[in-house]
Amino acid sequence: MSVIGVIGAGVMGVGVAQNLASTGHEVVLVDKDEKILADALATIRHNCRLSRLMGGPALDADAVLAKISTGVGADAVAKADIIIENVTENWDIKREVYQALDAACGPDTVFIVNTSAIPITKVASVTKRPTQVIGVHFMNPVPAKPTVELIPGFHTTPETILRTKSLLTAMGKNAVMVKDACGFISNRVLMLTVNEAAYLVHEGVADAASVDEVFRSCFGHPMGPLETADLIGVDTILYSVEVLYEHYSDSKYRPCPLLKQMTDAGLHGRKSGRGFYDYAGSNRATAAIPAQRSVSQSVNH
């Protein structure tokens, strides 16, 4: 059976590892230290127990976790047939990770880049296997979202596309093919929306709850843009907008200062317990944080 290496045990990496293991794949989950990996396994156990309550399939947590081994460093996935990388949307970090993976992995290993913005051809350029590098933009939470964006790079071969499609089908995913353009489909639209919603709070036009209520009540969206920012991660939103701004040199992608300050303050959304909303230890937003207005005002001053 194929072994899949999953790089990064954050929100996306945990979701990818759980999705792979629950569909019968052998997984090696890798991060920089054992504490992060232990927390990731605990999160997967928790998510498996809640799966049915959240509308997903009933999952045996012990059976899912039995499919997942862990390791630190690129050598832990040296024998993997396919790598799915999920590190932060920071080019310097991604480049270092791919150079290490390229040195550690066998010549036939396919590298799947889980990114919401960084061009796949740029990632492939730092490896010696550009024909075997392809992008897949998974949505969060990964096990619950059936559709992904599939992005071949300039040199990606049809064989690599077929291997990736086969894996995605086995994971229960529907792949939408997208040209290798920074931000692809989803984030060219979503990041602009979230960034502008943050500007509304930053400028004192409305608080986060009011912004989101308009999108839920008027447009029928299940979540408003700032609830979505908390789910994805405010820091991830900022990095994605910065990548779009740098890549296109277009002022429409200028990051909202409030996103920068929230990221610096550790208000990263659900994963840190506080973002545009205060989660107070639960998975549900309990209230918009009045302090967000103070953060915004302090930026203005």
Automatic annotation (TrEMBL):
Swiss-Prot/TrEMBL keywords: NAD, Oxidoreductase
Q: Which SUPFAM superfamilies match?
A: 6-phosphogluconate dehydrogenase C-terminal domain-like, NAD(P)-binding Rossmann-fold domains
- Taxonomically, which superkingdom? Bacteria
In this record, what's one Pfam family? 3HCDH
- Similarity-based family: Belongs to the 3-hydroxyacyl-CoA dehydrogenase family.
A GO MF term: NAD+ binding
Keyword presence, RNA-binding: no
Residues marked Important for catalytic activity (site):
137
Domain 3-hydroxyacyl-CoA dehydrogenase C-terminal span(s) in chain numbering: 183-279
Q: What is its EC number?
A: 1.1.1.157
Instruction: Supply the source organism for this entry.
Output: Allocatelliglobosispora scoriae
Q: Does the keyword Membrane apply?
A: no
The pathway where this protein functions is: Lipid metabolism; butanoate metabolism
User: For the 3-hydroxyacyl-CoA dehydrogenase NAD binding domain, which residue ranges apply?
Assistant: 4-180
What is the official name of this protein in its record?
3-hydroxybutyryl-CoA dehydrogenase
Sites binding NAD(+) sit at 8-13, 31, 89, 94, 116, 140, 271
> InterPro entries, alphabetically?
3-OHacyl-CoA_DH, 3-OHacyl-CoA_DH_NAD-bd, 3HC_DH_C, 6-PGluconate_DH-like_C_sf, 6PGD_dom2, NAD(P)-bd_dom_sf
An example Gene Ontology biological process: fatty acid metabolic process
